[in-house]
C-alpha cells in the first residue's frame, strides 16, 4: 500500500486544501500551547462540530515541517495504514464471533485468509485514493480510524460478556468515548453506534450470560 501511494506523496495541495489548510493562518503555530491549539482547532472547520480534531492534526503537521505537502500526505498515508491494521483486527474479531455462534467449521486458516483479504482490499481500493492524497480528507480518515478502534473495543467487550467475564465497561466506553472522538474528526463518526447495533442485531442477537447483561445490551 505504501508503495502504491508513494508517487502521490509529492503532489500539491488541491481544491479545499487551499482554503482550509494552506491559506489558513491559524494553523501556523510555533509553540504547542493550549491557546495556539484551540485557535487552530476551531479555524475554518466545516460541519456541525467544526471538526477540531482534524484541524489540530493539520496544525501539528505545520509545526513539524511547515506547509511541506509531503509531510501532510505522509501523515494521511500513515493513518490509512493504521486503519487497515484495525480492519484486519476487526475482521478477525467478527469472524471468530461468527464461528463461535454460527459456523464451527470455520478454521483459523479461513479466518486469517478472509481477514487479510478484507484489509488488503480496503487498503488498495481506489475509492480511498482521495482520502489519502487529498489532504483535507484526513477528516474522513480520522473518523474511520476512530470508528474502527471503537468497534474493536466493542467486540472485545462483547466477547467477554458472552464468556461471563467483565465486559460491560468496554462496551459502554467503546460508544461513549470513541463516538464523540470520531465526531470531532468528522460527522461520519456518528455512525459508530449504528454499526455496533447492526453487529449486535446480526451476530450476537443481544444474548449474554446473565439477564442483567442482556438488559444492558
Write the layout of secondary structure elements.
Layout: H1 2-5, H2 16-22, H3 34-41, H4 52-65, H5 69-101, H6 108-124, H7 129-133, H8 138-162, H9 168-176, H10 178-185, H11 192-204, H12 211-216
Helix pairs in contact: 3-4, 5-6, 5-8, 8-9, 8-10, 8-11
Ends apart, CA distance between termini: 38 Å
Structural class: mainly alpha
DSSP helix fraction: 55-70%
CA-atom Rg in angstroms:
20 Å
How many helices? The count is 12
Compressed to H and E, one letter per element, the order equals: HHHHHHHHHHHH
Number of strands: 0
Largest sheet: none
Low-confidence stretches: none
pLDDT average, as an integer?
91
Strand-residue proportion: under 5%
Oligomer: single chain
Basic shape: globular
Keywords:
12 helices, mainly alpha, 217 residues, 0% strand
Plain-language structure description:
The protein is mainly α and 217 residues long. The chain is globular and about 55 Å long. 69% of the residues lie in helices and 0% in strands. The protein has helices at 2-5, 16-22, 34-41, 52-65, 69-101, 108-124, 129-133, 138-162, 168-176, 178-185, 192-204, 211-216. The longest helix is centred in the middle third of the chain and has 33 residues, at 69-101.
Short description:
The chain has 217 residues and is mostly helical. It has helices at 2-5, 16-22, 34-41, 52-65, 69-101, 108-124, 129-133, 138-162, 168-176, 178-185, 192-204, 211-216. The longest helix is centred in the middle third of the chain and has 33 residues, at 69-101.
Amino acid at each position: 500500500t505504501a508503495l502504491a501511494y508513494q508517487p502521490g506523496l509529492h503532489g500539491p495541495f488541491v481544491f479545499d486544501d487551499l482554503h482550509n489548510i494552506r491559506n489558513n493562518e491559524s494553523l501556523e503555530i510555533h509553540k504547542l500551547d493550549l491557546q495556539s491549539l484551540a485557535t487552530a482547532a476551531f479555524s475554518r472547520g466545516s460541519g456541525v462540530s467544526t471538526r477540531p480534531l482534524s484541524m489540530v492534526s493539520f496544525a501539528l503537521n505545520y509545526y513539524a515541517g511547515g506547509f511541506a505537502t509531503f509531510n501532510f500526505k505522509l501523515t494521511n498515508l500513515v493513518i490509512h495504514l493504521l486503519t487497515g491494521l484495525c480492519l484486519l483486527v476487526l475482521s478477525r474479531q467478527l469472524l471468530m464471533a461468527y464461528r463461535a455462534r454460527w459456523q464451527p467449521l470455520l478454521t483459523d486458516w479461513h479466518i486469517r485468509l478472509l481477514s487479510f483479504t478484507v484489509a488488503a482490499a480496503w487498503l488498495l481500493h481506489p475509492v480511498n485514493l482521495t482520502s489519502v492524497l487529498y489532504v483535507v480528507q484526513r477528516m474522513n480518515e480520522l473518523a474511520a480510524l476512530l470508528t474502527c478502534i471503537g468497534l474493536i473495543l466493542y467486540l472485545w467487550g462483547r466477547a467477554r460478556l458472552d464468556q461471563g467475564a467483565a465486559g460491560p465497561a468496554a462496551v459502554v466506553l467503546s460508544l461513549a468515548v470513541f463516538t464523540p472522538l470520531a465526531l470531532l474528526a468528522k460527522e461520519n463518526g456518528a455512525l459508530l453506534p449504528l454499526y455496533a447495533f447492526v453487529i449486535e442485531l446480526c451476530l450476537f442477537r443481544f444474548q449474554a450470560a446473565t439477564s442483567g447483561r442482556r438488559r444492558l445490551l
